[in-house]
Amino acid sequence: MDTIQRKLLEEVAGLHEIPEGAYNIRANGESIDRGSTEHIEIISKEDGSGIDIIIQPGTKHESVHIPVVLSQSGLSEAVYNDFYIGEGSDVVIIAGCGIHNGGDTDSRHEGIHRFFVEKNARVKYVEKHVGSGDGLGKRIMNPQTAVHIDEGGYMEMESVQIKGVDSTNRLTTAELKAGATFIVVERLMTHGGQNAVSTFEVELNGEGSGTHITSRSVAKDKSTQLFVSKMTGNTACNGHTECDAIIMDDAAIRAVPEISAACTDASLIHEAAIGKIAGEQIMKLMTLGLTEKEAEEEIINGFLR
Amino acid sequence: MLELKNITFMVQDSSKEKGILKNVSFVLPDDKFIVVTGPNGGGKSTLAKIIAGIEKPQEGKIYLDGEDITDASVTERAKKGISYAFQQPVRFKGITVLDMIRLAAGRELSAAGACEYLSQVGLCARDYIQRDIDASLSGGELKRIEIAVSLARSAPISIFDEPEAGIDLWSFKNLIQVFEDMKNKLHGSILIISHQERILNIADEILVIADGEVKTQGSRDEILPGLFGDCERGGCRFYQ
């Protein structure tokens, strides 16, 4: 692994060395290092398109790291990873992708992740995306996450994309059985001429299932963002989505909420707000001695934290 | 020492100019505790904003320790040592109470250090320190946090715009204690805009502003009897 790859790895997964627990490190289209544990097995798919992560039932307090780094300009890849999270287990999965593109051709990573969360299992999934490099080639990431949560299962997903990704089209779908919970916190910032699309489609099919999706984003310069969130309640369930966006400069943001209920006991809420930073917020921080620019940065950093 | 000389502030009100402050002059001496009082709409809050630099007067000068700061920005004034607690505290998504106290202190402050300021305003620090300063806090909680933030600044000049507004009676007693402590450990000047007799009672000086003008200024003993004496007879002379 070279210095650029190491740096990206640190940024997306906080890794300085071989992580504890199970891991698979993918660099420039190949798996370069892998480790399984007694309870977590990582195996390549037979057709070579990705990996299967199999977590045995009852596995507690273990982690899986599966970072991806791309430093070769012009590389385009699609990876299919499937996660089987065994009944009653409780694990943390850290994914993430870093692209450094110093050349003039586009680099693209498409990660298609499927999660099968079995009965009463709990999983926290963290996904961080960054881009770097000053070539003309674009850094493109199109992650897809398909989540299936069985009865009583719980999944928390945290996704962060703060800088350097020129184009992203994210799709997150989930279907929940009885008593299942799906919590999402998405944080996104676009700048320059970047474009981001993020779509959520959640189906609440089991009685007592619930979801809470929070999206916070900042669009600067001439960047554009589109949020689509569709939530369907087919039974007694609870759903809440919040899209909260700060718009700056010449950016454009569109938020498209859609909630549908097919049961009188489905309770669904959608909140969406787009606005600039409130002048009084900047003023308050200026009365503490910050300059206008520092105040703005402080507000954005807090908002996206 | 802060000195305001002939401050005039006008706003456009249905095609004619309306004077919010008219030729206001006064001095806030070092280590003094001044309470500015007077009827609502008399120009008190505007005066506080003019000192903090949020509003710019059309006429007049402001001097801080002899230096003309009339054209200084809000940031510059803050750096020079003017602290200003808002009457209506601002809410933020994602900025915690601890962040705000650290920003105010202008240095890395331990959580325990920040807690001291919160305890002083009667908040159990452990419950608050990591909370966002957002809509989940009540008006009274926000006001107390705003005061704690001002305490953390330890500025030579501290301005509070109606710190008692929105604070429940139980907390109000503690609030008076906070200001009494500030006065006793005074290392700077305090200007409080208030209608509360108990705050007026601990003032060194009282300044009465009504209709955009300084009606009177003097020591507490000179001014206070006139204010409340009249109230007992059915109306303060400044509240007609």
Description:
Chain A is mainly beta and about 300 residues long. Chain A has one domain (about 5-275). Chain A is built from three helices and 20 strands. Chain A has helices spanning about 5-15, 280-285, 290-305; strands at about 20-25, 30-35, 40-45, 50-55, 60-70, 75-85, 90-100, 105-115, 120-130, 140, 145-150, 155-165, 165-175, 180-190, 195-205, 210-220, 225-235, 235-245, 250-260, 265-275. In chain A, a hairpin with a 6-residue loop joins strand 3 (about 40-45) and strand 4. In chain A, helix 2 crosses helix 3 (about 290-305). The longest helix of chain A has 12 residues, at about 290-305. Chain A is globular and about 55 Å long. Chain B is of the alpha/beta class. Chain B has one domain (about 1-230): 3-Layer(aba) Sandwich (Rossmann fold), CATH 3.40.50. Chain B has nine helices and ten strands. In chain B, strands 6-7-8-3-9-10 form a six-stranded mixed sheet, with helices on both faces. In chain B, strands 2-1-4-5 form a four-stranded antiparallel sheet. In chain B, helix 3 (about 95-105) runs parallel beside helix 6 and helix 4 (about 110-120) packs across helix 6 (about 140-155). The longest helix of chain B has 16 residues, at about 170-185. The relative contact order of chain B is 0.18. The interface of A and B includes residues 283, 284, 288 and 291 of A.
